[in-house]
Amino acid sequence: STLSNCFLAVGDFMSSRPSCLIVCSASVEGVSAQSFIHSYTLTSSAFAVHIATPEGKPIHFVKQDENSRRWLNDFNAKTTSQPLILEGVEANRYAALLVPSSPGAVHDLARNQHLGWVINAFMSENKCLCAVGSGVAAFCSPANQPSTDGSWCFQGYCTTGVSRLVSCLNLPSRTV
After folding, report:
1. Distance (Å, rounded) from C-alpha 30 to C-alpha 12?
2. Disulfide engineering: 52 pairs with which of 3, 86, 100, 145, CB 3.0-4.6 Å?
3. CA distance 50 to 134
4. Pick from 50, 129, 53, 123: which is nearest to 87 by CA?
């Protein structure tokens, strides 16, 4: 997959273990438990993972089942589960950025100016960016923080997003 290729490419050029920033919504609409678990498990196999939320607020996980609840309980007992303050994150410390599926992203990440700055920095340095499902709303944040030439950093790129119809129908999420 493209994300796996990013992991391999980054690993080839860096001698120490690179860092990945997982950005999560702190909105009450939350972060998909399954998406977060898959994102964290995948990235932690290749990266030192740091999690950040707006203002360092706790993550509200949605769509939990018994297995995900158990995994998240174990995860929350670790010190690494405490989110960093997104507004204090320095883009140059990370090789990749991932946003798991987050229904709440449209409420806080899409408008976060610091996240816009971080994404612009990633784009200007050709670093790996990945957003899953509704987490793609976070990619709207650079519109609030234009790049140095005043344009949106994704201008000319094709991106995907969650259909409004899918959101309205409240269909079960599928993880690939």
Report:
1. 35
2. 86
3. 20
4. 53
Which residue's structure tokens are 């995907």? Answer: 160
- pTM for this prediction: 0.78
pLDDT tens per residue, range 64-86? 899 999 999 999 998 888 999 99
Q: How many CA atoms lie within 13 A of 133 on its CB side?
A: 25
User: pLDDT digits over 92-133, tens only?
Assistant: 999 999 999 999 988 899 888 889 888 888 888 888 888 888
Q: Rounded CA gap, 105 and 50, in Å? A: 18
CA–CA distance, 102 with 27 (Å, rounded to integer):
9
User: In terms of residues, how long is the chain?
Assistant: 176
